[in-house]
Amino acid sequence: MTTQKQILVTGGAGFIGSHVVRLLVNNYPAYQIITFDSLTYAGNLSNLKDVMDAKNHTFFKGDITSEQDVKAAFEQHQITDVIHLAAESHVDRSIEGPMEFVHTNVVGTVNLMNQARASWKELDGHIFYHVSTDEVFGSLGDEGFFTETTPYDPRSPYSASKAASDHFVSAYYHTYGFPVKRSNCSNNYGSNHHPEKLIPLMINNILNKKPLPVYGEGINVRDWLWVEDHARAIDVIFHHGEIGCNYNIGGWNEWRNIDLIHELCKIMDEELERKPGESAELITYVKDRAGHDLRYAIDATKLFDELGWKPSITFEEGLRNTVIWYLNNQDWVKEVTSGAYQDYYKNMYNQR
Ligand code: NAD
Ligand code: DAU
Prior knowledge:
Blueprint: E1 6-10, H1 15-27, E2 32-37, E3 57-61, H2 67-77, E4 81-84, H3 91-96, H4 98-119, E5 127-133, H5 157-176, E6 180-185, E7 187-189, H6 198-207, E8 212-215, E9 221-226, H7 227-240, E10 246-249, E11 254-256, H8 257-272, E12 283-286, H9 301-307, H10 315-328, H11 330-337, H12 340-350
Parallel strand pairs: 1-2, 1-4, 2-3, 4-5, 5-6, 6-10, 7-9, 8-12
Antiparallel strand pairs: 9-11
Residues 10-11, 13-17, 37-40, 42-43, 63-65, 85-87, 89, 104, 108, 131, 133, 162, 185, 187-188, 194 line the site of nicotinamide-adenine-dinucleotide.
């Protein structure tokens, strides 16, 4: 049994990873938290600025697909556990270039597990926690929910790569007795969310009076969860979930895209003291995403019944907090939307 935890959090400089690192650093002073991140366009050390220099936090710049980088991190920090979030995470980018997703999400995950197996002499007492997505289950119609036993049916290159990584994690458990835990979560929102994703993109465009690009008819449904509640769920599962088990995490909070965008416009009109309805005039219907999944909805009953987790705040509170965070953190927004983002935006949206 290991007593002192030295947890490698991959992707810790990204959106969800930074919230996981912050929670662990603040709540577990006896643990050493090692953020492992290669700082792609989606990783940003300013996401960690309040915990970066904490006594129980270290940053390691490395690539999960590099045997050398991962080995060095394990050796230098005597890693006892891994919480694995590093990934290419944006569906639209996966449609443009799938191979990067295969490399990072599949090869990277297997490379991490191989190093953990090589380093952990006895597997007992260690945890490899794989953070995954509800998109692996495919697309729902108007009825029903994804449960832990829903068959996999990924439909985008992103979700196919996450599904493949989930299968490898499960295969390592069954084949080698490797100590894995996994969770599949719905759409997150909150601070430090990259403005390539729906909610921050809309907030930024409303602020700058730019068109609000709604894919297709805007009738696709997503189940939104406050990112800090996802981090709390990961904490609970990491500490109390069963080895070899998977848990679904969701907000019981389904919204059609168009309704959510109207809600954001309303909040922004209020916060910016615009006349009611002004921001909604920016709504522009554009060409749909290829293979656009209609509806995701998570049944998180297992997590609630077995481990007592449930979301802590309402969507109304969370969405307004998020809008206010973006309005108050325009330096962060400018940093992540300069340079390469402008090229990305032109390529992605001019062709729609
Ligand atoms: P993100 O894109 O914001 O962050 C990804 C992080 O991984 C970045 O810091 C990036 O620099 C890092 N990274 C990418 N490739 C790397 C590599 N080769 N080596 C090391 N680091 C690398 O992603 P996110 O939205 O925070 O998602 C984190 C995880 O949670 C992903 O595995 C994603 O599939 C999963 N997930 C996301 C959501 C969501 O709504 N965002 C929902 C469910 C599950
Ligand atoms: O369900 C969990 C997944 O949620 C995560 O695994 C992914 O990493 C994360 O990116 C997210 O995927 P989505 O594709 O659901 O998120 P995105 O913010 O890209 O899009 C949300 C919805 O909004 C989707 O139906 C597409 C639509 N959309 C998106 C953008 C960026 C638009 O209508 N216009 C846009 O400009």
